[in-house]
Design brief:
The complex is a heterodimer of chains A (141) and B (185). Chain A is 46% helix and 1% strand. Chain A has 141 residues and is mainly alpha-helical. Chain A is elongated, with a radius of gyration of 51 Å. The model of chain A has no long low-confidence stretch (mean pLDDT 73). Helix content of chain B is 67%, strand content 1%. The radius of gyration of chain B is 19 Å and the shape is elongated. With 185 residues, chain B is an all-alpha fold. Chain B contains 10 helices and 1 strand. Classes of the chains: A mainly alpha (141), B mainly alpha (185). Chains A and B meet through strand 1, helix 1 and helix 2 of A and helix 2, helix 3, strand 1, helix 7 and helix 10 of B.
Chain lengths: 141, 185
């Protein structure tokens, strides 16, 4: 059979395809990334491990404090006590009943004379503290 | 305007542009497209050493990957890929490529007529191509096996287009001369 350049080229490409098909080509992942997994698949277990370690650490910290608290049986708290006991003690007084007053129907309603009531003074209130400062006034003003 | 989402439907240049902008999948698609053919090129050029060819193919793509950010729009992908491959081959076969046979030796053969059986041509060509001297073998491979154009080969090899054409012509004549031995067997 007569062979020309086109026959040679065609056969050359056939040979090329046959040889290329037999090749074992490595995947690209093997070249650049030996191990690849999604980021979330790494982040979630990592967060769980960090949380677990943090839990262990806090538990150990509380256990190390427990011997100190075990030594304390009673906690005494100093409570401020009023200086003069008379102020806080209520004196018992006998009960009094007001007398019944009869008045005629025509009579004008009695007007209760107004008694001059002392205006609330700023000086009235809590006693002066030991350091002579009126804390109540300071607060109100 | 519709943007093709499938990477397989995109051209090499579009994929390379995406790879240059940081797309790993685009580069992987390019690798999947060209790795087998490039490895075959190395197998034929490096003397049937499959492991060495696989390493060279690997090295070519790693170099391409390292230089991916330098890719500019409009640049042809395959000539760039084969420029890297050609330089790797040239460095490996430096001694062989340095000895370029004088063109006078093969200039005598022209318009050789062949009459060979097709089945025989297949086997004969396999043997003849292996014995093709450099640099004809390289140019023949780039043009007829890898289907790169003469201007692309000229760009890859830094040779004038006229030189590439004449050497390709001479390569074909050498092959025909060798095939002549298989005639009428």
């Amino acid at each position: 059979m007569r062979v020309d350049n086109q026959d040679i080229i065609r056969t050359v490409r056939q040979l090329r395809d046959e040889e290329n098909q037999q090749l074992n080509v490595r995947p690209w992942n093997r070249h650049c990334r030996h191990f690849h997994m999604p980021a979330w698949l790494v982040a979630i277990p990592a967060a769980a491990i960090v949380g677990f370690l943090f839990g262990i650490w806090t538990q150990e910290a509380s256990q190390s404090d427990s011997p100190l608290t075990a030594l304390v049986d009673t906690v005494y708290v100093k409570v401020p006590v009023p200086q003069s006991p008379q102020d806080s003690v209520i004196q018992p007084t006998p009960a009094r009943q007001a007398p019944v007053v009869s008045a005629p129907a025509t009579a004008k309603p009695a007007v209760r004379p107004s008694t001059p009531s002392p205006r609330p003074s700023k000086t009235v209130g809590r006693p002066v503290a030991d350091d002579n400062i009126r804390y109540d006034l300071l607060v109100r003003n | 305007m519709l943007i093709p989402l499938r990477l397989s439907s995109q051209t090499d240049e579009q994929l390379m542009l995406r790879a240059a902008r940081g797309s790993e999948r685009a580069f992987e698609e390019l690798y999947n497209r060209h790795s087998r053919r490039l490895q075959g090129f190395f197998v034929r050029r490096l003397g049937d050493d499959a492991d060495l060819a696989a390493d060279f193919m690997h090295d070519t793509f790693l170099r391409l990957y390292a230089a991916r950010e330098t890719y500019r729009e409009g640049r042809s992908f395959r000539p760039w890929l084969y420029t890297i491959a050609y330089n790797l081959c040239k460095n490996h076969l430096r001694n062989q490529l340095a000895v370029i046979h004088e063109d006078k030796e093969v200039a005598e053969y022209s318009d050789i007529e062949l009459d060979i059986d097709t089945a025989l041509l297949h086997d004969a060509l396999r043997v003849v191509l292996k014995s093709l001297p450099e640099p004809y073998a390289m140019l023949f491979s780039l043009h007829y096996e890898e289907e790169l154009t003469v201007p692309q080969i000229a760009q890859i090899t830094s040779l004038p287009e006229g030189t590439v054409k004449s050497r390709l012509h001479k390569a074909m004549n050498i092959i025909k001369k060798e095939l002549k031995q298989y005639e009428s067997r």
